[in-house]
Amino acid sequence: MTQLKAVIEQVPFGVHFDYPAVRPLTPYERERRELLARYGRFAQEWGHEIASYLIQPVGTPDQLVVELYDATASQLVVACATLQRESGGAGAWYSIGTLADLARFLPAHTSNVLVLPAEPDDDLDGLCAIRSITPVWPHDDTTFTNHQQQARSSEPPFPPNSETSL
Fold first, then answer.
1. For 41-87, what is each residue's pLDDT tens digit?
2. Which residue, 107, 105, 81, 104, is CA-closest to 94?
3. Quick one: three-class SS letters along the chain?
4. What is the pLDDT of residue 74?
5. How far apart are CA 83 and CA 93, in angstroms?
6. In angstroms, rounded to a whole number, what is the distance separating the alpha carbons of residues 37 and 30?
7. Tens digit of pLDDT for each residue in 32-48?
8. What are phi and psi of 122, to 5 degrees?
9. Which pLDDT score is estimated for 32?
10. Is the pLDDT higher at 151 or at 125?
11. pLDDT tens, 112-140?
């Protein structure tokens, strides 16, 4: 039987699928996963419903993984453990491409969030802006911020919600 549309399966957040168990994690991948887990805990503490998805696109044996989707804020979230565009194939370019690839399978109103280890430089920030991606980064050990939140310095650090662009 021919598959007519992508098959999307919801799975629990926190289960990672991108490396076989026999292959050790690289330091970059370990840092990226920790950053994503921290962001996931942060969103959950604000009462957000988060999940992961496995996607089987039509006509390909490849399986795509949405590691973090914030259903409360309709946000696709990808983490990048470096501010460099290219870092052994796993830099910001790769993360931005991952967002573009995965977003095709999510509702049209979904916004894209790129979790970074620190505030992006102007160049990376500009790249995110033209791709309609909101970069966020740790404010401290338990909260995250973005440029919009920093402009509102009297407000608490970034609470993820659907009322702002992030």
1. 999 999 999 999 999 999 888 889 999 999 999 999 999 999 886 65
2. 81
3. CCCCCCEEEEECCCCCCCCCCCCCCCHHHHHHHHHHHHHHHHHHHCCCCEEEEEEECCCCCCCEEEEEEECCCCEEEEECCCCCCCCCCCCHHHHHHHHHHHHCCCCCCCEEEEECCCCCCHHHHHHHHHCCEEEEEECCCCCEECHHHHHCCCCCCCCCCCCCCC
4. 95
5. 10
6. 11
7. 999 999 999 999 999 99
8. -60, -35
9. 92
10. 125
11. 999 999 999 998 999 999 999 999 999 98
Sheet holding 75-79, edge to edge: 7-11, 50-56, 64-70, 75-79, 111-115, 133-138, 144-145
CB 30 within 8 A of CB 77: no
Distance of alpha carbon 68 from alpha carbon 62, whole angstroms? 19
pTM: 0.84
CA 68-126-93 angle, to 5 degrees, is 50
